[in-house]
Design goal:
Elements lengths: L1 H10 L2 E3 L7 E4 L2 H9 L3 E2 L16 H7 L10 H12 L2 H5 L2 H16 L3 E3 H6 L1 H11 L6 H15 L11 H21 L5 H7 L9 H31 L2 H9 L4 H11 L5 E6 L3 E3 L2 E3 L4 E5 H4 L34 H18 L4 E2 L18 E3 L3
Parallel strand pairs: 2-8
Antiparallel strand pairs: 1-2, 3-5, 4-10, 5-8, 6-7, 9-10
The structure holds protoporphyrin IX containing FE.
Length: 385
C-alpha cells in the first residue's frame, strides 16, 4: 500500500478516476489534503455540492441511521451536533476514565500473560476500546459482542469501494441498532445516570437539544466508529513496533516516549486511511480546477508518509517531533474522540511494554481488504511467560 502511495505522490498526486459519472479525484500529497480539509469550498454532503447520489434499496436504512452523524454533515447541522456532543463528551469525562482504562488493560493482560502467546488483536486490542466505550456511554456490558459486530458491519459499509462490497447484513443491522438504541434511550430517560448517553439526552445549547433520532445516531456513531479505529491504533501500532525491534527496545528503555510514540504509530500506519469531500464552489487546489459537484478522496495514509511534510517519512521514529499527522483529520471535522483514543493508546502501549517481555511475532498477519480503514485480521504473538 505505501509503495503505491509513494508512486502516486511522485507520478500522479492529483489522480482523476476514469469512468466515473462525475469527476472524482484522489489526492495523495500532504499539502493538497490539508488544503481541501481547510477549504470552505469543500463540503461533506453530496447534496450540498448539487447532486444526489443514487440510493440503493438495501442501503436506505443505514443511510437513515447515519444521516444524523456529525461526521457526515455540513453546517449548520454539523456545528449544532458537534456543539451539543462536545458538551457531553468533555475532556473531563475522558480524563475520568483513565483509572478504568488501566484496570481493564491489567485485567485483559492478567488473563493471557501466563499463556506466553495470544492473538493480541482478539485478546487485547479489540476488547479494550469496546469495554471502555461501553462503560463511558453507560450501555450494558453484556451487549459488547453485539457492538463489535455492528462496528465491523459499519466499517465494511463505510469502506466499501463499490456497491458489491457493501455487506449484505447492513440493512438488518441498521434496523437492529435503531431498535436497540431506542430501548436503551427510553431506559436512560427514565433513570438518568452518570454516563454519556444521559449527558447527551440532557445536553442543551441555545435552548436546543438533540432530537430522539439524533441521539440514536450519535450513540451508534460513538459506540461503533469510536472504537473500531482505536482497536486498529493498538493493533497496527503493536505490529509496527514488532517490525522495528530497535524502536520497540528504545520505547521499552524510555517509556516517557510513549505519548510521542502513539502519535508516530498513528502517522505510520493510520487506522483511517481515507476520507471524502465534495466541491461546492469552484476553486483551484493542487494545480487542478475543481467544479461544483466534483468529488475528492483524501488519502490521509499517504499524506502521513509524504516526505515533504515528514523528514524520512517511511522511517518509524518513536521520538518524532514535531509530528503534525492527519490521522485524526484536520479542520472542522477533526476527531472528537482524539483525546480518548490517545489516552487508550498510551495506557495500552505502556502496559504491554511493561508486562509482555520479549514480545515477538509468531506469524506475519494479514490486513482486512478495506480502502478506508487499516485493520489487521489477527496479530499472533508470543512473549516470555
Ligand atoms: C472524526 C480518526 C477515535 C469519534 C474523525 C476523523 C478521523 C478520525 C480521521 C475525521 C474524518 C473526516 O474529516 O472526514 C480517528 C482515529 C481514532 C479515532 C484514527 C483512533 C485512533 C475516535 C473515538 C471517538 C471518535 C474514540 C469517539 C468515541 C469521532 C467523531 C468524529 C470523528 C464523532 C466526527 C467529528 C466531526 O465530524 O466533527 N476521527 N478517530 N473517534 N471521530 Fe474519530
Amino acid at each position: 500500500r505505501y509503495a503505491v502511495y509513494r508512486a502516486m505522490r511522485e507520478l500522479a498526486p492529483v489522480y482523476l478516476v476514469a469512468d466515473s459519472p462525475f469527476p472524482i479525484r484522489v489526492l495523495f500529497r500532504y499539502r493538497d489534503v490539508v488544503a481541501v480539509l481547510k477549504s470552505p469550498a469543500f463540503v461533506r454532503e453530496a447534496r450540498n455540492a448539487g447532486h444526489e447520489l443514487p440510493v440503493r434499496e438495501e442501503t436506505v436504512r443505514i443511510r437513515q441511521l447515519l444521516s444524523t452523524w456529525m461526521l457526515l454533515r455540513d453546517p449548520p447541522d454539523h456545528t449544532r451536533l458537534r456543539g451539543l456532543v462536545s458538551k457531553a463528551f468533555t475532556p473531563r469525562a475522558v480524563a475520568a476514565m483513565e483509572g478504568f482504562i488501566r484496570q481493564t488493560a491489567e485485567a485483559l493482560l492478567d488473563r493471557i500473560q501466563r499463556q506466553g502467546q495470544a492473538d493480541l488483536l482478539q485478546d487485547f486490542a479489540e476488547p479494550l476500546p469496546v469495554i471502555v466505550i461501553t462503560r463511558l456511554l453507560g450501555a450494558p456490558d453484556e451487549d459488547r459482542e453485539r457492538f463489535r459486530r455492528w462496528a465491523r458491519i459499519i466499517a465494511a459499509y463505510l469502506g466499501a469501494w463499490s456497491p458489491e462490497d457493501v455487506p449484505p447484513q447492513v440493512s438488518a443491522a441498521a434496523v437492529e441498532m435503531a431498535e436497540y438504541m431506542g430501548t436503551l434511550l427510553d431506559r436512560r430517560r427514565r433513570e438518568p445516570g452518570d454516563d454519556l448517553i444521559s449527558a447527551l439526552l440532557a445536553a442543551e445549547q441555545d435552548g436546543q437539544r438533540l432530537s430522539h433520532d439524533e441521539v440514536i445516531g450519535t450513540v451508534v456513531m460513538l459506540l461503533t466508529a469510536g472504537h473500531e479505529t482505536t482497536v486498529n491504533l493498538i493493533a497496527n501500532g503493536t505490529y509496527a513496533l514488532l517490525r522495528h525491534p530497535h524502536e520497540l527496545e528504545r520505547l521499552r528503555r524510555s517509556p516517557e516516549l510513549v505519548p510521542l510514540a502513539v502519535e508516530e504509530l498513528l502517522r505510520y500506519d493510520s487506522p483511517v486511511q481515507m476520507t471524502a469531500r465534495h466541491c461546492a464552489t469552484p476553486v483551484e487546489i493542487g494545480g487542478a480546477r475543481w467544479q461544483r459537484g466534483d468529488a475528492v478522496l483524501l488519502m490521509l495514509g499517504s499524506a502521513n508518509r509524504d516526505p515533504e511534510a515528514f523528514p524520512d517519512a517511511d522511517r518509524l521514529d518513536v521520538g518524532r517531533q514535531p509530528n503534525e499527522h492527519l490521522a485524526f483529520g484536520h479542520g472542522a471535522h477533526y476527531c472528537v474522540g482524539a483525546g480518548l483514543a490517545r489516552l487508550e493508546g498510551r495506557v495500552a502501549f505502556t502496559m504491554m511494554l511493561e508486562r509482555l517481555r520479549g514480545l515477538r511475532l509468531v506469524r506475519e498477519p494479514r490486513y482486512v481488504p478495506n480502502v478506508a480503514f487499516r485493520a489487521l485480521e489477527s496479530l499472533p504473538v508470543a512473549w516470555e511467560s
